[in-house]
Write a structure and sequence with these properties.
single chain, 347 residues, mainly beta, 8-stranded mixed β-sheet, 4 helices, 19 strands, nickel insertion, chaperone, cytoplasm
Length: 347
């Protein structure tokens, strides 16, 4: 007889002359949780969800949080190898995935361009997404998305997306995703957490649409919240920025938010040398000047402690905003690396 919960693992001992002794070795019960650490709530759930989003917490009538297909995980590690930044470790769980990194920048053939993709058409209620990107010493990479992130209508609960970036000594990273489009009655919290070495450079962008503008849908979502937090390896805070768009609470129309516009775009450029910040700010302003007649409202200023420069703009023309955002990111790329930024094709 075996003990309750133990498997019948049998071991025979003895010799040719005598009968074999049979002993049953107890095997511990399997753990209550399955799927490894990546499928545990403490891994894919944010440590804190803003109250504006958390108030919609409920159990969906469809697939519950944590069900198969509801937790997406992507983990990438980049290292410098033979003078080229290469993807050394890669884990993906649908719906998050990538194709192979591309090297099409003729001015920087060592620099991969990585497209984050999704096997789903968008983000649904109860989705929990987590992406961990690590860039080792002296690496360089450009990370973007396959297309705009569509946040679908939700009848219950909300969705979250965690983006964790670790940028180590001397690395240069550009994280410039396509716009986020929150559909009617959607609820979303997006958290970008960065650990940035003092000697590294980083470009981070974010663009948010008021909704499906082509069908005259504007600010029909329930809430969109995002946080950007940048810290040093020591834990010291470098920068913190929050966006809270809650149409029902009236938090979208004022100055510093959308000011009655349809598109909000932001770019943060972190550099190791504070002495270069004034020249960097001038470069970004110069890139934006041609768009002054496109009814865009924008501003550029230094980040706290001269850690870099940030830009924020609002407008109603999605094409003009996209061109302005591309131009200012290209100006930052050229300022930091000394080479022109390539045209990135997406279709």
């Amino acid at each position: 007889m075996t003990a309750p919960g133990a498997a019948a693992l049998v071991k025979e001992t003895g010799s040719k002359r005598g009968p074999a002794e049979v002993r049953v070795l107890p095997v511990p019960d399997p753990p209550e949780s399955h799927g490894g650490y990546r499928l545990q709530p403490e891994f894919y759930e944010p440590k804190r969800v803003p109250q504006e989003v958390l108030q919609f917490s409920s159990r969906p009538g469809t697939l519950a949080v944590g069900s198969p297909g509801k937790v997406g995980v992507l983990q990438l590690d980049f290292e410098l190898h033979d003078g080229t930044t290469q993807l050394m470790r890669h884990y993906q769980k649908s719906p998050l995935q990538i194709m192979r990194p591309l090297y099409f920048n003729l001015e920087r053939p060592d620099m991969p361009y990585v497209y984050l993709t999704s096997t789903g058409g968008g983000i649904l209620q109860g989705d929990r997404l987590r992406t961990d990107l690590r860039f080792g010493p002296d690496t360089s990479a450009h990370v973007t998305t396959q297309a705009a992130s569509k946040i679908y209508k939700m009848d219950s609960d909300y969705a979250t997306s965690l983006m964790n970036l670790t940028v180590e000594r001397g690395a240069h990273v550009e994280y410039l995703p396509d716009p986020v489009i929150p559909f009617e009655r959607s609820r979303m919290y997006q958290q970008t957490s960065v650990v940035l070495d003092e000697t590294a450079t980083l470009l981070v962008g974010e663009t948010i649409y008021a909704g499906r503008l082509a069908r005259e849908e504007r600010h029909a979502y329930d809430v969109y919240a995002s946080d950007l937090e940048v810290r040093r390896p020591s834990g010291a805070l470098v920068a913190l920025d929050r966006v809270r768009l809650s149409p029902s609470a009236g938090g979208i129309d004022g100055l510093g938010v959308l000011a009655d516009h349809d598109v909000l775009a932001m770019l943060y450029v972190f550099v190791p040398d504070a002495a270069t910040v004034p020249a960097l700010a001038d470069a970004l302003l110069g890139a934006l000047e041609p768009f002054g007649e496109a009814s865009l409202i924008y501003g550029v200023s230094a980040l706290p402690s001269d850690a870099g420069v940030w830009m924020r703009l609002v407008g109603n023309d999605t094409v003009a905003v996209a061109r302005a955002s591309t131009a200012v990111a290209a100006a930052a790329h050229t300022f930091v690396l000394g080479t022109p930024a390539p045209n990135i094709r997406k279709s």
